[in-house]
Amino acid sequence: MEYSLENTLKNFFSKDQQSLDELIDQWNKEVLINRKQRLIHFGDKENYIYYIEKGTCIITYPDQGEDRILGFGYPGTFLFSPSILSDTSSEEEVTAIKKMTLKAIHKDYFFSFIENHLEAKNNWMKQLQNLLVAQIYRQVDLLIASPQERYQRLLNRSPHVFQFIPNKYIAAYLRMTPETFSRLQNS
């Protein structure tokens, strides 16, 4: 399946083709990231919002020499460091697990555009609300003792993750060994 920025952004604009075209023109930075290469580094000040056209990545938090997986990026999704919302340094890292092609827009232009287009602003707010809900579900997942229940909750909530992300990363995200994950997947 091909993913396109234009088709995804059409969800932001149901009526205003001119505004859509204006926004698409500003996603003019193309970024290519090779496997195992970092897009966002811990401590950097990030200025871009990305759209993933191809490839996949993991979003991690470095903890005592180990990367804790916070989430994933895959084709058809937007990707940004939460630090762009607070204008602080990034506390996470984004690393490609499969070669990535991304489009990028500078955060200043994006937020100015959103501020001046009510339909886009409302849809952006819906996206942020969805992210907040997903984070709450993730917090609950981290509290659940049963690996089987954590696995089942992710499968029910986000079955597409299993299509894009290798099992070893999903296992780490779910706080279980690859062997436990494999057993659950095969049961």
Question: How would you describe this structure to a colleague?
Answer:
46% of the residues lie in helices and 26% in strands. With 187 residues, it is α+β, with helices and mostly antiparallel strands. Strands 1, 2, 3, 4, 5 and 6 form a 6-stranded antiparallel sheet that branches. A hairpin with a 2-residue loop joins strand 3 (48-63) and strand 4.
Lay out the secondary structure.
Elements: H1 5-9, H2 17-26, E1 29-33, E2 38-40, E3 48-63, E4 66-73, E5 78-79, H3 83-86, E6 93-106, H4 107-116, H5 118-143, H6 147-157, H7 161-164, H8 167-173, H9 178-186
Descriptive terms for the model:
46% helix, single chain, 9 helices, Jelly Rolls, alpha+beta, six-stranded antiparallel sheet, 187 residues, 26% strand
CATH superfamily of the domain at 5-117: Jelly Rolls
Radius of gyration: 17 Å
Q: How much of the sequence is in beta strands?
A: 25-35%
Shape: globular
In CATH terms, what is the fold-level topology of the domain at 5-117?
Jelly Rolls
Strand pairing plus helix content: what structural class? Answer: alpha+beta
What is the helical fraction, as a range of percent? 40-55%
Per CATH, the class of the domain at 5-117 reads Mainly Beta
Poorly predicted runs: none
List how many beta strands DSSP finds. 6
What string gives the helices and strands in order? HHEEEEEHEHHHHHH
Mean pLDDT across every amino acid position: 92
Largest sheet: 6 strands, antiparallel
Using the 3D structure, state the CATH architecture of the domain at 5-117.
Sandwich
In DSSP terms (H or I, runs of 4 or more residues), the helix count works out at 9
Roughly how many Å apart are the termini? 29 Å
